[in-house]
Amino acid sequence: MKNKPVIILGFFMLLAIAASIIVYSGTEDIQEEQEFKVTRNLMNTPITITVIHTDETYAYESIERAFDKIENIETTMSHFKNNSEVSRLNQEGVIHDADPELVYVIETSIHYSELSDGAFDITIKPVLDLWESKFKPGGTFEPPTPEEINNTLELVDYSSIEIEGNSIKINPAMSIVLGGIAKGYAVDMAIESLKNDGIENAFVNAGGDGKYIGLNSRQSPWKVGLQNPDREQEFITIINIHDMSVATSGNYERYFSDDARVSHIADPRTGYPSEELISATVIAEDAISADSLAIAVFVMGKEDGLKMIEQLEKTECLIITDDKQIVRSSGFSNYEAS
């Protein structure tokens, strides 16, 4: 009789173990990781957020929070929105209560302006407006005259931007455009939002500016195809990306008009469209850097652009010249799929 309690206890222990195995097995099936994706048009471009997770509801909630972050940045930094802080700055020449994020983005833009000897410059908006006015309905459909270019260039000067605390000031008649840097920043902040939600595997792509964290659904690095300018459905190369960012600037997707075929990326130093390259793709740790540097390289051209990239750590680029040569920085091939 003394052994019976032990036998009974052992019986119940076996039942508990069996139950735990059943429960564990069932949970394992439920927790299989899947890919969840949402695409929306924000910041004047399609933005896709993809998340790898076990819980569909939580994945979509996290995606929604990331999109909320992007929308907030657009509300602050878009020059297309009349009530944005950037529009206020352009209209009034000064803003005293600027969002700290706007201050950060403008300070970062100045850094890349200095790094690129002015090839990247957010005060280029008057030049872009001048070219656009020539090739929109009612325009002359002729390039601006040298005199018009020279007069407008007097309004382009990143070094004249004044920042003190949360106050930002630009000279009268000047205006800024953050399209070459705000997208990258928004991608970074969307990724940070996902990370704060515990998401480890995901990517955010905003019209060619992307940041990729963790691994894809096959537990391998994310694969990014670089488009062939001549054939839309073909790739020049495929790169493996893990916890890095990629951005491409080029003149084969966006033009002021289909007839004019004028590049939307102008050189802030000359006032004329940049035409030496077809595209410049940059790999960097964060999207704000990749975004800014891709434009800088595109404007600087092959030799100066490569020279700048080779001086930066954890930064690589691939350039397609106007005569369709493909030029890589020294470490770019390390990212290419074999």
From TrEMBL:
InterPro entries to which the protein is assigned, alphabetical: ApbE, ApbE-like_sf
Annotated GO MF terms: metal ion binding; transferase activity
CC cofactor: Mg(2+)
Keywords: FAD, Flavoprotein, Lipoprotein, Magnesium, Metal-binding, Transferase
Enzyme Commission no: 2.7.1.180
Catalyzed reactions: L-threonyl-[protein] + FAD = FMN-L-threonyl-[protein] + AMP + H(+)
One Pfam assignment: ApbE
Domain of life: Archaea
Database matches in SUPFAM superfamilies: ApbE-like (SSF143631)
PANTHER family assigned: FAD:PROTEIN FMN TRANSFERASE, THIAMINE BIOSYNTHESIS LIPOPROTEIN APBE
Descriptive protein name: FAD:protein FMN transferase
